[in-house]
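Q: Can I see a sequence and its folded structure?
A: Here is a first one.
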Amino acid sequence: MDIINTIGRRKSSIARIYLREGKGNIVINKRKFEDYFTVPEMKDRVKQPLRVLNVQDMYDIKVNLSGGGFKGQAEATSLAIARALIKLNPDDKPALKEKGLLTRDPRKVERKKPGQPKARKKFQFSKR
């Protein structure tokens, strides 16, 4: 089996992953998976595509993450892993799609506008 390369994005995070057969090791930015994501919810989110297909210990994954915060990075990684698993076996697509793991979440932070304190909030209006 060759190395499968995919990309996942969420907010301003970008995850590039390299998936190959192995023992279930996940390395993120040259650090162990457990050291990079310390919050249990983030660990679960990253491993969710593997858990859905029950292939946690079959593939080694190398991840290059950039941008954003931990939540965005975890969701970008999850999307990239799901896409890689589909490249590997297209028959798995319905199972992953049913769990919503193939949808790229397009929501981003709206930019701040001039003359306002935030993107939509206005300064308090004073009549006098």
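Q: Show me another, different protein.
A: A second, unrelated one:
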Amino acid sequence: MAVVMALFQRKPEKYFQFYAQVHFLTCEVCLIHHGEISRDPQHKPPLHPDCRCHLLEFPPTELEHYREQSERMRLRAQQELLRRKLWSRAADRLNGANYAQAEELFRQAAQVEFYLEEVEQLCQEKRDLLASNPELRARLQKLFIKCYRVKFSLDKYRPIPSRTILLWETQGLERIKELLL
């Protein structure tokens, strides 16, 4: 009887943690699972075509560490989801000519992260509006240059060599100027 009870009380041999690459292209479903810990994962990557997520296996002895990490990961995913909403609302405000509010929303989104690819996408989507409104182009150029410069002060960029950061920043600033000339 004691052997049977011991089997039921025994901890699992391994746990799994879901890892999504937190990026503006990562789907919401993957972001929602980012950091999730389970013994028998129901959500096993790839969840869709081009999914770049994976599961990390770890032993029960590391569970507390991974739970703490999971909280940070889930917070980061929630921040990215909020950033997307802010960016989307900002882009919508441009259509209504509410430029000051759009700028504030873009600024709030950039406090989480700022993606040059998203600026390119925005410029493509709003091509006609931007072509007919030089004042708006100038305002966005000034704002996005400022946001792009601030981007590299985020903690996650600190381990990257300063020469690399300078190169990225220079190229990005030139691209923003080119897009919003």
